[in-house]
Design brief:
Number of domains of chain A: 2
Strand order of the largest sheet of chain B: 6-7-8-3-9-10
CATH class of chain B: Alpha Beta
Mean pLDDT of chain B: 89
Strand content of chain B: 25-35%
Low-confidence stretches of chain A: none
Oligomer: heterodimer
Strand content of chain A: over 45%
Structural class of chain B: alpha/beta
CATH superfamily of chain B: P-loop containing nucleotide triphosphate hydrolases
Largest sheet of chain B: 6 strands, mixed
Shape of chain B: globular
Largest sheet of chain A: 11 strands, mixed
CATH architecture of chain B: 3-Layer(aba) Sandwich
Low-confidence stretches of chain B: 236-240
Helix content of chain A: 10-25%
Number of strands of chain B: 10
């Protein structure tokens, strides 16, 4: 791995050296490094590009890193990764994609991730997207995440994109059985003419299924963001969607909430707030000695934490 | 230490401050009181630079700071506790205390200052400063953010506003100790007799003018007499 690879891996997965536990590092469309453990196996797909990750039941507190880096301008990389999490396993999966593009051709990565959690399994899934490079070629990332939660399972997804991605459409789908919980937290910041679109579709099918989706975003300059969520409650269930955006300069943010209750016992809430940074917040920080720019940076940094 | 010269402030055709002249000495505990709408909070905001006077000068340690921005004044040694503490998303109590002190402080330092304002430090240091905190809790955190700065002048704009009587009675103890925590001049805008009682000096503002100024002992008696005969009603949580 060269210096650029290391910078990208540090940005997306906070990897300085060989990660502990199972991992699969993909570069420019090919797997370049892999490690499996006693409880976690990683198998290359035969029919298409991608991997199947199998976590044995009752596996506890293992980390699985599956970062993707792209340094080849003009590459259109599509990968299908499936995760099969055994009964009562409890693991952390760290994914993400970093693109370095110094040339004029667009570089694109579409990661299609499917999660199948067996009964009582717990997963924390962290996905970070990042772009850099001096070229005019766009850095495009279109992740699709499909989550199927079986009885009593739990998945927490943290999705972060703060810099350098020119265009993204992020689709996340969840199908929840009884007594499951899906927590999604998304943080996005866009600059220049970047476009970011987020789509959440969650079906609460089992009794006492619950979901909490939080999106915090900052849109600056001429960027455009769209947040679309659709939570369907088909039984006794709880769904809460919260979209909170700070808007600056000439940016635009569109929030489209949709909650559908198909059962009288479904309890669904949607909250959306879009606005500029409150002047009183800036004033407060200025009374502590920060200038206006520093105050704004602190407010945004806290908001996207 | 602080001198205000001929301060005038008019908004929407209404005279809020009319030729206010004032001198504050070093290491004093001063309370500005007066009826609702008398211009007290406006005067405090003018000292911090949050509001800008139409006419007049603000001198701090002999230097004219009339044209200086809020942050410049803050860095020169003025602190300001807001009447309605500001809430933030994602910023924790520890973050704000670090920003307030202007340097890296340890969690222990943060906890020490929280304890001094009457908060059980461990429960609060990592909390976000958002609507999940009560009015009394936000008020104490606000006080901590100015106390940690230990500036030459610390202004509290109506610390009693927006909190219940129970919380206020507990807060009085914090102000009794404030002299030891801050170590500079403390200027409090307040209606509360209990706060007036712990002052060295009291300034009575009425209709945008300083009506009277003096030692607590003399002033308290005069103010209470005026209130009795209805010349000056203090009370209430105004924005005066």
């Amino acid at each position: 791995m060269d210096k650029i690879d290391k910078v990208l891996l540090k940005e997306i997965a906070n990897i300085d050296e060989t990660p502990k536990g199972a991992y699969n590092i993909r570069k420019n469309g090919y797997g370049i490094e892999r490690q499996v453990t006693e409880n976690v196996s990683i198998v290359t797909k035969k029919d298409k590009s991608g991997i199947d990750v199998y976590v044995k039941e009752n596996t506890k507190f293992e980390f699985i890193h599956i970062p993707v880096i792209i340094t080849e301008s003009g590459l259109n990389d599509v990968v299908y990764n499936d995760f099969y999490i055994g009964k009562n396993a409890d693991v952390v999966i760290i994914a993400g994609c970093g693109i370095h593009n110094d040339h004029h051709k667009d570089s694109k990565h579409d990661g299609i991730h499917r999660f199948f959690l067996e009964e009582g399994a717990r997963v924390k899934y962290i996905e970070k997207h990042y772009g850099e490079g001096a070229g005019t070629g766009k850095k495009i990332l279109n992740p699709i995440t499909e989550i199927t939660l079986k009885k009593g399972s739990y998945l927490e997804m943290e999705s972060i994109q703060l810099k350098g991605v020119d265009s993204t459409i992020r689709e996340t789908k969840g199908i929840l059985e009884s007594n499951t919980n899906l927590v999604i937290s998304e943080k996005i910041m866009t600059h220049g003419t970047q476009i970011a679109k987020t789509i959440f579709d969650v079906e609460l099918n089992g009794e006492n299924a619950s979901t909490h989706v939080t999106s915090r975003s900052v849109a600056t300059e001429n960027s455009v963001q769209e947040f679309k969520s659709n939570v369907v409650g088909n039984t006794v269930c709880f769904g809460h969607v919260e979209c909170d955006a700070i808007i600056k300069d000439k940016a635009r943010v569109i929030a489209i909430p949709e909650i559908i209750a198909n059962n009288v016992e479904a309890n669904l809430v949607h909250e959306a707030a879009i606005g500029k940074i409150a002047g009183e917040q800036i004033t407060k920080l200025m009374t502590l000695g920060l200038n206006e720019k520093q105050a704004e940076e602190q407010i945004i940094q806290g908001f996207l934490r | 230490m602080l001198e205000l010269k001929n301060i005038c402030f008019k908004r929407d055709g209404k005279e809020i401050l009319n030729n206010v002249n004032l001198k504050l000495g070093d290491d004093k505990f001063i309370v500005i009181t007066g009826p609702n709408g008398s211009g007290k909070s406006t005067l405090a905001k003018i000292i911090m630079g949050i509001e800008k006077q139409d006419i007049g000068q603000v001198l701090f340690n002999g230097k004219d700071i009339s044209g200086e921005s809020i942050d410049k004044r803050a860095n020169e040694g003025i602190s300001f506790a807001f009447q309605q503490p500001i809430k933030f998303k994602g910023i924790t109590v520890y973050d704000l205390l670090k920003l307030s002190s202007g340097k890296e402080i340890t969690r222990k330092d943060a906890c020490d200052i929280l304890s001094k304002v009457g908060l059980c430090a461990k429960e609060y240091v990592d909390r976000e400063i958002n609507a999940s905190l009560s009015g009394g809790e936000l008020k104490r955190i606000e006080i901590a953010t100015v106390a940690v700065r230990k500036t030459k002048l610390t202004i509290f704009d109506e610390p009693e506003a927006g909190i219940d009587l129970w919380s206020f009675n507990n807060l009085i103890k914090v102000f009794e100790e404030m002299r030891n925590i801050v170590k500079g001049t403390i200027l409090i805008i307040s209606h509360q007799e209990k706060i007036l009682n712990i002052a060295d000096e009291i300034i009575l503002l009425n209709n945008g003018k300083i009506e009277q100024q003096g030692e607590k002992e003399n002033m308290l008696e005069a103010i209470l007499k005026k209130e009795k005969i209805g010349c000056c009603r203090l009370g209430g949580n105004g924005n005066g």
